[in-house]
TrEMBL record:
The lineage of its organism: Eukaryota, Viridiplantae, Streptophyta, Embryophyta, Tracheophyta. Residues 1-22 form the signal peptide. This is Subtilisin-like protease. Belongs to the peptidase S8 family. GO terms for molecular function: serine-type endopeptidase activity. Residues 146-597 form the Peptidase S8/S53 domain.
Length: 789
């Protein structure tokens, strides 16, 4: 869903109603029927009422504020305050008419009025894939992060009968002393039995959702209970306790455990069946900050292109959290593989892309002529026999995409149907094949996903094959008089080399950064494909009502799944290195990430079949054990982020939304490229751009105070990269050092791609501190290769 810019939205509405209000009669009518919707109102801090820490009184305070700021003629229908915010933002959410909202927007006490929008939500092998071992490295060094609380903003949690959330015998009975949160009860959620020393917080925020629906919640529980499965999955991935004999109907069997097995979990349910209203999500940030969590895991974002940071509720909430020392790990989104699709792209987020593990759930389609296409399946019922069965293409029997009710049962009965992607969820198509009497299905994937297939919890014998394979199978069907096939289910296959791992998921959202191209996004990648973790017992693993199965675990994919891996690892670092700021934890994860796959090549990209770029994988795949000892770090704090916003040209009012009284004109001279980021992104706007300079400050956090680092550059095509100085000498008195990088276009330099990439390595022979470089070229400089397919 496109995020509405507040003023534009108000102007459009103003136009419509001004026309309707041509006569007085109509105007009265308009007032009577005037609909209210939800808005988030950012208030000038000096004009905000003094609030008690939380609760009813806080809403009353803003009730007074509204009575003072809305004239009598606009006072009906009376506004309703949904939330007051004092930690993640200064202001409130309320039900207002457009005219009340417009009036408030023009008030000197109000910074901005943002319409409430719906945000989108974007699993056990992973600890060993990440090198996390109970006997050495970061896991024992951090004691599993037993003193850390991870706040998970999502669809809630389903703890009953889930070992991931059971009381933990070796953890202290109480959460860390500074944690002030707790659990609230609701229908189907008895906090006194479900919360314990592992699940230390469980709250829900539904006022925005309920106001938008105009009625009480439907299927969803008015409690922290997760009826979807998403939040249970993400929370258990971040910090679930070890659960023996986990798996999804035999797939991915083994011990399931979160990345930070000792960390405490506090869930903040702000996401409902239709999505996550921004007013509810900001309330969740507000509460998590007030409760004193250490890490926030947010697998959600605004839909569509990333909004301006001041209009992006998650960016605003995350800014305040990071200012208080809370690390915010967020998913990059599932809108890949196109450019500029990454979400949560402000520099204060730790933004996570998704890549594969060394595990596949293989199911091969074997054609009558012996040709075999490797696909993926989670089918758990009776396998098909070796005897080949008749094969038909959906397009020849009623519906290419196997739409419900469109398949001709006479032509489908007893056969396997090949279905094209699109329109409906896979589970719905399976249902349609099943109802038509089909024996099984082969699903093609979308072309832009290349080698990637998206699996689902299959209810009939089915496999999903890549686009190219489904095109070949179609050719086979049209060429043969009696095409046949069988599907051979090979179960869980763990393999180091074939295919190599990790590979970037096609769906993982990509850079460049739509709002600040000099900030390279995403930051890192982590496992997000076919992840096994805990699931809800309140609905089926496919989400279909006709699917009566209930599963303790499910296997799903998305950057929603990679984000909590990084949240968990960040919790380990938070405990192992308590003096590190959120920016330093992020820097450590970025500069120690790896970029080479298990076969020794650059991490691949499933959408192209070739190598990935830093716009897909960021600084690379996280490497937790190395991140505990990064050597040098790039730090940044609130003031640096304000400088960044000023450099983007934000007004005083826009900066004030982040809680700062900074005067940007007094900070002239800062540039976005100089933000102390552990990665480099350079934009050449014309072919004559003079050299671009970016400066950085690094701090030595290695064991030796006296140490010398030398720079090694791998220059991107078309540029000469100069690092000054090339040698950095640190001592007990000089723990930080500055350097400048000059990116100069080579004379006669023409490149064949819109973006070229390289890296800078600082090394003291013991540590390797790596930053990627991305160059964006103007169209005039790019020679398009001819006959490129
Ligand atoms: C919740 O569980 C406690 C402990 O088992 C029990 O005493 C209490 O009655 C339960 N509350 C509700 C509302 O069921
Ligand atoms: C289904 O296919 C059969 C056999 O080709 C045909 O006779 C029948 O008319 C089809 N039914 C529909 C509803 O198209
Ligand atoms: C902001 O800074 C500029 C330049 O230093 C100064 O002229 C201006 O008065 C300041 N504005 C405010 C509101 O302080
Ligand atoms: C490169 O950029 C130009 C415009 O600047 C665009 O038309 C073209 O599609 C881009 N090429 C690729 C491969 O993205």
């Amino acid at each position: 869903m496109e995020h509405l810019r507040p003023l534009a939205a108000l102007c459009i509405l103003a136009g419509i109603v001004a026309a309707a209000a041509a006569t007085e009669m109509v105007e009265i009518e308009v007032v009577e029927v005037e609909a209210r919707s939800s808005y988030i109102v950012h208030v000038v801090p000096a004009h905000a009422p003094r609030l008690p820490r939380r609760g009813l009184l806080a809403s009353r305070a803003y009730g007074c504020f509204l009575r003072e700021h809305i004239p009598t003629k606009l006072s009906s229908p009376a506004p309703t305050v949904l939330y007051s915010y004092s930690h993640a933002a200064t202001g409130f959410a309320a039900r207002l008419t457009w005219r009340q909202a417009a009036h408030l927007a023009s008030s000197a006490s109000v910074l901005a009025v943002v319409p409430d929008t719906m945000l989108e939500l974007h699993t056990t092998l992973t600890p060993s894939f990440l090198g996390l071992s109970p006997s050495s490295g970061l896991l024992p060094a951090s004691n599993g992060a037993s003193d850390v609380v991870i706040g998970v903003i999502d669809t809630g949690v389903y703890p009953e009968g889930r070992a991931s959330f059971a009381a933990h015998p070796s953890l202290p009975p109480l959460p860390p002393g500074r944690f002030r949160g707790g659990c609230v009860s609701g229908p189907s959620f008895n906090a006194s039995t479900l919360c314990n020393n592992k699940l230390v917080g469980a709250k829900f925020f539904h006022k925005g959702h309920e106001a938008a629906r105009g009625s009480a919640l439907g299927e969803d529980s008015e409690s922290p209970l997760d009826t979807s499965g998403h939040g249970t999955h993400t929370a258990s991935t971040a910090a679930g306790s070890a659960a023996a004999d986990a798996g999804f109907y035999g797939y991915g069997r083994g011990k399931a455990v979160g990345m930070a097995p000792g960390a405490r979990i506090a869930v903040y349910k702000a996401c409902w069946e239709e999505g996550c209203p921004s007013s509810d999500t900001l309330a969740a940030f507000d509460e998590a900050i007030a409760d004193g969590v250490d890490v926030i895991s947010a697998s959600l974002s605004a839909g569509g292109k990333a909004p301006d940071f001041h209009a992006d509720i998650i960016a605003v909430g995350a800014f305040r959290a990071v200012s208080k020392g809370i690390l915010v790990s967020a998913s990059a989104g599932n809108s890949g593989p196109g450019e500029y699709t990454a979400a949560n792209i402000a520099p204060w987020f730790l933004t996570v892309g998704a890549s594969t593990l060394n595990r596949q759930f293989r199911a091969d389609a074997v054609l009558g002529n012996g040709e075999t296409f490797t696909g993926t399946s989670l089918y758990a019922g009776e396998p098909l026999g070796a005897t080949k069965m008749p094969l038909v293409y959906g397009g020849d029997v009623g519906s290419k995409i196997c739409e419900d009710g469109k398949l001709n049962a006479t032509m489908v009965a007893g056969k396997i149907v090949l279905c094209d992607p699109g329109m409906f969820a896979r589970a719905v198509k399976e249902q349609s094949v099943k109802l038509a009497g089909g024996a099984g299905a082969i699903f093609g994937s979308i072309e832009s996903y290349g080698e990637q297939v998206m699996i689902s919890a299959n209810v009939i014998p089915a496999t999903v094959v890549p686009f190219a394979a489904s095109e070949k199978i179609k050719k086979y069907i049209s060429a043969e008089t009696t095409p046949t096939v069988t599907i051979v289910f090979r179960g869980t296959v763990v393999s180091r080399r074939t295919p190599p791992s990790p590979r970037m998921a096609s769906f993982s959202s990509r850079g460049p950064n739509f709002r600040a191209p000099e900030i390279l996004k995403p930051d890192v990648t982590a496992p997000g494909v076919d992840i096994l973790a805990a699931w809800t017992g309140a609905s089926s693993p496919t989400g279909l009502a006709s699917d009566t199965r209930r599963a303790q675990y499910n296997i799903v994919s998305g950057t929603s799944m990679s984000c909590p891996h990084v949240s968990g690892v960040s919790a380990l670092l938070r405990q192992a290195r308590p003096e590190w700021s959120p920016a330093v934890i992020k820097s450590a994860l970025m500069t120690t990430a790896y970029n080479v796959d298990s076969a020794g090549g650059v991490i691949g990209d499933m959408s192209t079949g070739g190598a990935s770029t830093p716009f897909a994988r960021g600084s690379g795949h996280i490497n937790p054990n190395r991140a505990a000892d990064p050597g040098l770090v790039y730090d940044a704090g609130t003031e640096d982020y304000i400088d960044f916003l000023c450099a983007l040209g934000y007004t005083a009012e826009q900066v004030a939304v982040f809680g700062s009284s900074a005067n940007c004109s007094a900070r002239a001279g800062s540039s976005v490229g100089d933000h102390n980021y552990p990665a480099f992104s350079v934009v050449f706007t014309t072919s004559e751009t003079a050299a671009v300079r970016q400066s950085r400050v690094v701090r030595n956090v290695g064991g030796d105070a006296r140490v010398t680092y030398r720079a090694k550059v791998s220059a991107p095509d078309g540029v000469r990269v100069t690092v000054t100085p090339r040698t950095l000498r640190f001592s007990a008195r000089r723990r930080t050092q500055k350097y400048v990088v000059t990116f100069a276009q080579r004379t006669l330099g023409r490149v064949t791609k819109n973006h070229t990439f390289g890296s800078i390595d600082w090394s003291d022979r013991k540590h390797l501190v790596t930053s990627p470089i991305a160059i964006t070229w103007p169209a005039s400089q790019v020679t398009v290769a001819v006959a490129e397919m």
